[in-house]
Amino acid sequence: MTIRSLIPVALLVSASFSVVACSTTSEEGLFDEDRCNDEGVSCQAYGRKNYENKPAAYELGNGARAPRLRLIHEGQPGWDPIDLEFNPRRPRELWIMNYATSHMTIVRNAGTSQAQAIERRDPAYSHYMYKPAGIAMAGEHPEWGQLWATCGDNNSFGNYHMGPTLYSAELDIFGGQNPQTGLGSHLDMLHSTSFCRGIAWAGEGNQYFAFNAHNKAIDFYDFVQDHGPGNTDHSDGIVRRFWNNQVKGVDGVMSSVGWNPDNQKLYVADTGNKRILVLDPSQGQPVAPFPGTEIIAERRYFETPLEVLTEDGVLEEPSGIEASGGLAFVTDAKTSQIHAFDVETGARVRSLDTGLPTGSLAGLNFGPDGKIYFVDRKASRVYRIDP
């Protein structure tokens, strides 16, 4: 099947909601032009916006009226959207990762009558983005443009040669084929994380964190210099493993990780242990190396304190997570609720019960409008929360 076509709380508050369809007003929901070219702007993935003078965790409701869930996009049944992010350099462009089909849906002008969906899959997806666990938009490359990475919830058909893959978000690159190697359009890949369940950009360069459900650990990756589309040089790669055998995945549920640029810490949905953890990589101390399936520059265990933000009893199956502006927003795949926690104290600030079936929730993210967008796996939909 070839998919490459254009298709025309300190204070705890719970809220209910109503569902409304996509906007039919042509200009509603269209975002400002590319903000990354503005003088003095350091472009990165979106976070909370204009929240300082609003009710606590207002993105999940303001406490005075019920928020609305606005249907933004609906894919084909069975595609199983698992995660989503807006392209930082094209803010009208929403990228949706589909787990079951291992392909990407790129929606231009999402949530408006001008919306167009492009379905794109790498020709070599069976290794580089098979059963993808998430998407992490990153920085910009002078030749390849906007970069992003994903990782696969699999063991590479039994040889455990699996890990994060780096791609370009430029559609004249992503989905193409290197005719010399036949290895598709990936820009780099490293191979120490089988059954990856979540991925996040670490805020600089080609650095990422991944949830390793096989080794029950959090892995840090640095691709350093990419090898270009469809090539194979991984010799400069760096892998560091934190918390070996201290986290736990749940089959069929994603365990997202979210980098908080405000305090330079990683927030982890430790699904199997029903808790949220905080990793401070600056506290890491190198210890012994560990073996792998390829020759790279560094592959080593790091010791660092394990900080628990929320204990068992608050969450059933934490899955998606985004930390920004003093709060960590978490989806619970078991209860179909979305919670906001204080990133310092762990206090639950606000909750939203989406009313969706168990197993619907996974990735969530902020849009350029500062609102929360999230996937509905069961119905192959994307919703926006209008507080």
Query: Which parts are unreliable, with pLDDT below 50 for 5 consecutive residues or more?
Result: 1-18, 22-29
Helix/strand order, N-terminal first? EEEEEEEEHEEEEEEEEEEEEEEEEEEEEE
| Helix share bin | under 10%
Annotated CATH architecture: 6 Propeller
How large a portion of the residues is in β-strands, by DSSP E?
Answer: 35-45%
> Would you tell me the structural class of the helices and strands?
mainly beta
Overall pLDDT confidence = 90
Main beta-sheet annotation: 6 strands, mixed
Tally of separate helices: 1
Largest sheet, spatial ordering of strands: 13-14-15-16-21-20
Number of strands: 29
Q: Separation of termini?
A: 40 Å
What is the name of the CATH superfamily? TolB, C-terminal domain
